[in-house]
Amino acid sequence: MSRNHSGEILEVTVPSSTKHLHALGMLTKSLAESMGFESQDSEKTALAVEEALTNVIEHAYHGKNNRKMHVIFEMKKEKFIVRIQHRGEQIEAANVAEPDFSHFHRQNKKGGLGVLIMRRCMDEVTYKHGARQNECCMVKYLKK
């Protein structure tokens, strides 16, 4: 873990495989708790990270498990930032609208709620698209 003038940074690179999701979720929860987040907020942050990584695996890499995902955890005094970077197809999550849950349930749909879960669990969710790399940035603010 490196330290910069405004907090600590931990960077992890993992293959695009679902078998690593639980471990990254546990790491996220542990880091959030070490910052002082309540258990419920730590669990929500971990869930958001797992959902974002799942989106990269399923939508950016189309299930290919030989690609790389780079996860950067920034622990600042008042906020926890998680950046998920990848070189797959860009995910157009900004266009995802809030679903009508009654309609969703009637169609017996599974999946498709990851972006909604991320938005509900985190305080900010933004996307950056570049020629060489795409990024999902999520922020959770520490409540005083």
- Output the radius of gyration: 15 Å
Order of helices and strands: EEHHEEHHEE
Q: What is the total number of structural domains? A: 1
Instruction: Give the biggest sheet.
Output: 6 strands, antiparallel
Strand order of the largest sheet: 1-2-3-4-6-5
Quickly name the level 1 CATH class. Alpha Beta
Please state the structural category: alpha+beta
Low-confidence stretches: 104-110
Helical proportion, percent range: 25-40%
Estimated share of beta-strand residues: 25-35%
Determine the mean pLDDT.
86
Ends distance:
25 Å
- CATH topology, by name, is Heat Shock Protein 90
Concise summary:
By secondary structure, the protein is of the alpha+beta class. The protein has four helices and six strands.
For this entry, give a set of tags.
single chain, 144 residues, alpha+beta, Heat Shock Protein 90, 6-stranded antiparallel sheet, 6 strands, globular
What does this structure look like?
By secondary structure, this protein is of the alpha+beta class. It has a single domain, classed as 2-Layer Sandwich (Heat Shock Protein 90). It contains four helices and six strands. The chain has helices spanning 21-35, 39-60, 101-106, 114-121, and strands at residues 2-4, 7-15, 68-76, 79-86, 124-129, 134-141. A six-stranded antiparallel beta sheet has the order 1-2-3-4-6-5, with helices on one face. Helix 1 (21-35) runs antiparallel to helix 2 and helix 2 (39-60) packs antiparallel against helix 4 (114-121). The longest helix has 22 residues, at 39-60. The two termini are 25 Å apart. The model is unreliable at 104-110 (pLDDT under 50).
